[in-house]
Design a protein that fits this description.
binds adenosine-5'-diphosphate, four-stranded antiparallel sheet, Rossmann fold, six-stranded mixed sheet, binds magnesium ion, globular, alpha/beta
């Protein structure tokens, strides 16, 4: 990897009463990329996100962000360092505008000097919401509400965005719009870790795929490489006979 990794996961494990939800997983993420984590239900994708964001403490292993160990840190301290998670945070406030909702993200998040107004506008622009800035959140469609969650996460000035199934329940048009937003976020320099079930979208938008199966990392490579991997086809994509 040419640039130093923004995120480094080393021999990470998490057991729940003997069930190995994450089993000795190691990988490093290049800055400015979109990496998708795929795998069947129960593979450990959300647990991995919970370990990175500090909602869960690992049984073993370390997580480093920009070289700094963050394992075991409180979630708010990890957020202050510049990691944001979308789609698990509190719902938007319905009776205030899009801009006011995004401004809340700009008031919190990463430590350091900030220009709250500029950060709010940037969050809305990257999430393709600038034209709806003055609309009440309660008047947004389901797809637009998802964009609002992304805008709030980006407004925290995070350098790493974790998105857990941003396209779940969206129609094909809304899914395409969300994928465009993720691309815009990558173009702005923010690194994205994505968990998403919509495989055409994942194949199209990802620079790299990590495949989890029963807590283990069974493949790691470009979408093209991973799609050809026999272990992945067997574990996740289904055998040709079965489909
Ligand atoms: P995914 O997001 O890939 O569908 P999860 O990370 O949610 O998978 O779950 C991985 C495994 O860990 C599953 O078997 C799940 O039941 C178990 N698990 C997840 N969270 C907990 C928890 N808080 N307590 C006990 N078991 C859990
Ligand atoms: Mg999950």
């Amino acid at each position: 990897m040419s640039a130093p990794a923004i995120l480094q996961v080393e021999h990470l494990s998490k057991s729940f009463r003997g069930l190995k939800a994450i089993a000795d997983v190691s990988f490093a993420i290049a800055p400015g990329s979109i990496t998708s984590i795929i795998g069947p239900n129960g593979a450990g994708k959300s647990t991995l996100f919970n370990l990175i964001t500090g909602y869960l403490a690992p049984t073993a292993g370390t997580v480093r962000f920009n070289g700094r160990p963050i394992t075991g840190m409180a979630t708010n301290r990890i957020a202050e360092l510049g990691i944001a998670r979308a789609f698990q945070i509190a719902r938007p406030f319905r009776d205030i505008s899009v801009r006011e909702n995004v401004r809340i993200g700009a008031l919190f998040g990463k430590k350091g000097l900030r220009d709250v107004e500029a950060t709010t506008e940037r969050g809305m622009k990257l999430a393709s919401l600038a034209h709806l800035a003055d609309r009440r959140a309660s008047a947004l469609t389901v797809g637009q509400l998802r964009h609002l969650e992304v805008a709030r996460a980006i407004a925290t000035r995070a350098d790493l965005l974790l998105a857990d199934e941003p396209c779940a329940g969206l129609n094909p048009t809304e899914t395409a719009a969300m994928i465009d937003v993720l691309r815009q976020i990558r173009s702005s320099g923010v690194t994205v870790l994505l968990v998403e079930h919509d495989m055409p979208s994942v194949m199209e938008v990802s620079d790299r795929l990590l495949v989890l199966d029963a807590g283990m990392l069974i493949a790691d490579g470009s979408p093209h490489e991973v799609a050809k991997d026999a272990k992945v086809i067997a574990a996740y994509l289904g055998t040709p006979e079965a489909s």
